[in-house]
Amino acid sequence: MGILPWIVIILLVFVIYSLMIRYEKKIEKITKIIETNSENIQENRKLIEQNRSLIEKNKLSIEKNTQNLTKIDVDLED
User: What is the top-level taxon of the source organism (predicted)?
Assistant: First the structure.
């Protein structure tokens, strides 16, 4: 009976070690995914800012075009 507790202890140590290795690998994968997502988020924020500036430019163009259209409509009515 003196050997059985040691076998159980060694088996438990092995199981705990294998679980630690498995979850450590999962944590590394998750960390890589988070880093990649964070880089993508930064890139997307830059693109959003670029699009905002383009939208502002388009707003000005649209306003000019609507003014020109109203002038054309007024000219056509005469």
Answer: Bacteria
What's the number of CA atoms in the CB half-sphere (13 Å) around residue 76? 6
Cα distances from 21 to residues 2, 9, 27, 71, in angstroms, run: 30, 18, 10, 74
Please give the backbone phi and psi of residue 26, each rounded to the nearest 5 degrees, phi first.
Answer: -65, -40
Q: End-to-end distance of the chain based on CA atoms, in angstroms?
A: 112
Classify residue 3 by its DSSP letter. Answer: S
Q: What is the pLDDT of residues 52-78, one digit of tens each?
A: 999 999 988 888 888 777 766 555 555
Length of the chain: 78
- For residue 63, give both structure tokens: 């306003």
